[in-house]
## 1
Amino acid sequence: MNNVNTNVTLSGWVQRSRDLGGMTFIDLRDRYGITQLVFNMDTNAALCKEAREMGREYVVQAEGKVAERSNKNPKIPTGDIEIMVDKLQILNKANTPPFTIEDESDGGDELRMKYRYLDLRRNPLKNNLLLRHKMAFESRNYLNGQGFIEIETPVLIKSTPEGARDFVVPSRVNQGQFYALPQSPQTFKQLLMVAGYDRYMQIVKCFRDEDLRADRQPEFTQIDCEMAFVHQEDILQMFEGLIKHLFQSVKGFMIGDAFPRMTYQEAMNKYGSDKPDVRFGMEFNEITCEIKGRGFGVVDSSEYVGCIVAEDCAGYSRKQIDELTEFVKKPQIGAKGMMYIRYGEDGSLKSSMDKFYSAGDLQKITDKVHARPGDLLLILAGEKIPTKKALCELRLEMGNQLGLRPKDHFKPLWVLDFPLLEWDEETRRFYAMHHPFTSPKPEDIPLLDTDPARVRANAYDCVINGVEVGGGSIRIHDDQLQKKMFRTLGFTDEEAEQQFGFLMSAFRYGAPPHGGIAFGFDRLVSLFAGEDSIRDVIAFPKNNAARDVMADCPSVISDEQLKELSISVKRN
Ligand code: ASP
């Protein structure tokens, strides 16, 4: 409003134009929003006619006077003013866009990905990229304030196929040899600790050749950090500080309390997940002992029987319960069926297994799980681990149905004490649950020889609303312990030396105790933005088949290029 009567020049895109006979209006869009341009048939007929010719998405420049709008639009920041245009220039014409450039576009996913530069003109994506920028800026701001320095690490590195699959890059200069793209800068940041840079950070691209899901991309970004001379507690404090700073500076709200902490074991027992959504309760209750031994075959042959209590859901209809049963039976969830106990408001108990259980038996179960009249108990049975996983999905589904997972409500927590190792039945060997450089808890080191599965790690995840936003560990900094770890993972000493010799050698030249963490930056931004997919916070993402549909990539390369690399490709 301060600018009324001043002369201005505006450049941007034609969002839409309206021809009202005597007057023509154009909504001009730029990065900052929409401004209304006004053309008057009475004062300048020629210009008004010109304005009528402007198609959607034409790039134009307008000069004119700022005027107060009689008909104000409170929905947009520039809605109080308009520009009485006296000069208009087309900077570039535009084809009619293949979908509408509106907040709610009519374009499907694939089409919008193909014309991503048009999709990026839409407000929802623009706002996400602005948010992303702000979060990157504030992360650097906080970490800089804490004495961290940003150091770049290489993108062409040695392939160490431990963890996910590497993307590989052929070397022309060293024929027949390959680089890998980093799955993370893990070994480099540890080497930087050995080199004496005791607080490192980097907002960095990482590459993993994995199957894709909504929260995965072949290339993604981490806020990668490492500190020397620290214990786990120092790291938790420092990075709890980072997350709180982001909430405050970007979202404008304070999280005063310390993040709750939960051991891995507790998370698995209560929620069947190492990344529990603690916006709501509905914790698991094990009722294996209470329910077994009544001649109900399904239950009697089960290793684990667990239930969740859906408060005030006794009124769920037959149809709703059938739908939940269908939900848990979906192949990706994998339960064989679902049982329930309906605890009526009047205290009556009805179940899907009345044949086997008396009212007294059912009462014992409802007492054990502290259910109240009006509640609905949902029960799954089977092998322990898969059943807990299914119960976890059922809990989240009930959370959705009951509106207990609002996107603007954030509940961070730390999950601690992860197991160091994970047994893989197929290859019959242990894998590092985090990565091979994670330190076992000192008191558990003897178990490495006797019962490796029970060794706990000094490893931690930061979880918000059921999303693992970050993870890290205190590292091994002793070459002998690192060697032992590789042996436990089934490496011969020669293999370990060949792949990780550079790191173990560094440990022999004065390696400080160190540890760190990396946050999945895309996930963190999508969580702040309230988006379900990280694609919506990445300017140029890949699709579900790992393709860039805009540039049509990956693509074949020329025979000439292949020859230079001495690579021959079997073409089907
Ligand atoms: N490099 C690890 C990862 O990408 C994070 C860490 O341990 O700092 O998961």
## 2
Amino acid sequence: MSDLDLKNKRVLLREDLNVPVQDGVVTSDARIRAALPTVRSCMEAGAKVLILSHLGRPQEGVYDEKLSLAPVAVRLSELLGRAVPLRRDWLEGVDCAPGEAVLCENVRFNKGEKKDSEELARRMASLCDVFVMDAFATAHRAEASTHGVARFAPRACAGPLLVGELEALERALESPARPLVAIVGGSKVSTKLTVLEALLEKVDRLIVGGGIANTFLAATGVGVGRSLHEADMLDIARRLMTRARARGTEIPLPTDVVVAKELAATAHADIRSIHEVGGDEMILDIGPDSAEHFGASLDSAGTIIWNGPLGVFEYDQFGEGTRAIATAIARSKAFSLAGGGDTLAAIEKYGVEEGISYISTGGGAFLEFVEGKTLPAVAILESRAA
Ligand code: 3PG
Ligand code: MG
């Protein structure tokens, strides 16, 4: 985008403004703030800026007030210091003066969006002179507003947020300063298996947390009581550990944990050695010794990739492991890259934004890139540039 003269051009700008909304108010505006520099530079260049985004997963062809971008328009206007009107029937054509921006209502209200309909994509393309794809967090979706429109628009290019995200991921994964350490938390090995496999081939150390760590612990024969773990993934966890040993990659497991008999805000938390977890107990966080050990090992890292919390940090008594790791990442001099919805919530909760080198707006897109998958919305831009 930065190579083009956008003056008086009709720019169709795809952002990912899919943010959490409660009672008509945006509760986390991180993605809106991430899109601001691109919106501003289009406006300052004198473009007529039509902004596209989805919100949630509405039923296609039906307007649903609960998934209207109206709250996003409000927050975007506040942040820009300029009114950004919301247009509901934007496919019919939108009036927009040079230097102004208009927000088009949720792209997923349109029939054909999810299925990347050619007819819908052509209609979108006819609204613009330049299509700018900037929605990294939706780049793993081949939909009409992320993929199809890029085929038919007179010009199609990547926006600065998308470029910045890809550069950060490449820096962390393709030519990382070593040691490269990945921290993968979250509940299931099964949903993160390809991520774990892909990372194992690249990293020097793989720290696991959450239900994933429980499954690894169970695979080494440790009794995990009623902890969230996947009994049918034990062989796979063992295979990953064998592969790690063969490569010389460390997968350090927690040596102590925080347990409780119930998962609730009022639950009483106890610290245990991993060998003392009761049959009626659940592991809900890594323990203080493990947190300190993992944290200290981040001090010498050259690059850190973080996805997923280490415990149930929504409840403070199970959040200390995630807090310790978040703080250690922030303290480390490594190039650190974090992504994923829960990870972002943890970063916000513990106030460590400043210490993290790059915070990705992507959840699914971030993980698919780490897995080595092609992002269709990026591939189509590359094919048009070729
Ligand atoms: C996300 O939040 O992961 C992106 O906005 C993509 O949304 P989707 O998973 O509904 O396609
Ligand atoms: Mg998603």
## 3
Amino acid sequence: MGSELIQITLANRPGAPRPAAGSPGEAANFAPWHLVDGRIATNEACGAGPSPGPANAHQPPETLATSGALKTFYIETFGCQMNVHDSEKVQGVLLARGMIPVEDHAQADLVLYNTCSIREKAAQKVFSRLGTFRKGRSGTRKAIAVLGCVAQQEGERFFERAPQVSLVCGSASYARLGQLLDQLEAGERRVTGLALDTDECFETEMTRRDNPFRAYLTIIEGCDQHCSFCVVPMTRGPQRSRASDKILDEARRVVDQGYTEIQLLGQIVNAWHDPSPARLSFAELLSRVGEVPGIRRLRFTTSHPRYFTPDIVQAIDANPILCDQVHLPVQSGSTAVLARMLRGYTREEYLEKIQGIRRARRAISLSTDIIVGFCGETEEDFEQTLSLIREVEYDQVFSFKYSARPNTLAEGSRDNVAEEEKGRRLTELQELQRQIQVRRNQALLGESFEVLVEGYQARLGQAVGRSTTNRVINFPGSPEDVGRYLTVKVTSAGPNSLVGVRA
Ligand code: SAM
């Protein structure tokens, strides 16, 4: 999954164009930038917490808004596209209650943080933000809600660690969000939605889509895989798939709203199975969504190699609306490490899937996720990861140092690769991948691609487009180009992006 952290706040949104028929508008999930007031900004601010840490424990909550006082809200999101889209749906719930979004938390009656706990660093961010609301530092009556993975992980303990928080809700309880907000408005000071044993999906009547170019659609929630490093099954609950008719209805609706690009989402998107009598396979679902009149691009993420079947490649081959891009996290190139990670495939089995993708009639762009320094990873294991990267030649790799997570199966194993060594391996891997990307991107010189223009950098006079393979291409353009599909010829190439001219 484009696993880089994305921070989206209301401050990113003003001025961002809303989609109009045939002309979608703003920044996308894989981009290292987004539009701010119509301008491009990087996501580097992710780590920049304004305050030193969590509130002192055992202070009474002094910031609770009560009895119908929740009129305005501010929401900040950390984590993957699934979190971003969850926040879009949460905002739909708030808007349907008549609440108004504001751009500054100081003006909000309700401040919500939608959190990520995939790695320790990500989990810490919310405590940094909550420091803003320590006793004496914030304004008046304000309700603070922590949503998502850290909420689920910390549960009731949140109230001890951060007493200014009055609502703690994991994603498996979002279907009850309206009811939880009622409790908050009725003056309850410690409201929780922490049940995990759900078979419900989070359906909303309204969704506030923040990305005017790409409509996210969740098709499967939770995860049952229990990879030994991964916290997701404990924070997002059991796997539950949405019925194909609901997904297709939503796809038609977003196209009616003007979107031409859809991205189907799930932590393990290709494990989707149709609970409806239609019993579509995942590949059939891709084909059906790809046939919705008006759609021009369909993407999906994140696929798990175990469920990556040849019919998915056949579906991509059969319909050019399905983007020529697959994100297939391998995590390690060593079969021994994969076994300890409980990934359910060997290096050889993974490479067979890759060969199946490479045999497609269309050249499909490949990306992956890799963890270095997992418990017991030897130098030889790591070398196997490097050799796999050399063999596959990915177009993009998201790489991480292993971070032990609470309640995971690997938590009890010895996290015995030293931090410094993890850092060394990460740097070596990233340097190797950088060289591969330079080579692969330079091989595209002179080729032309259709891009969807997602931004414009006034200072440089450059438009920023994205190809179906998810490559970013900068080219001389104008603000009016934003939202258009244009053909661009590549004139130069760096490791992370291409430069071109209108063809
Ligand atoms: N569900 C997807 C899967 O299993 O392939 C990926 C979900 S996760 C949000 C994105 C990536 O974060 C994973 O593919 C993995 O590379 C990384 N990740 C997950 N747990 C991690 C951990 N404990 N330490 C470091 N990286 C981790």
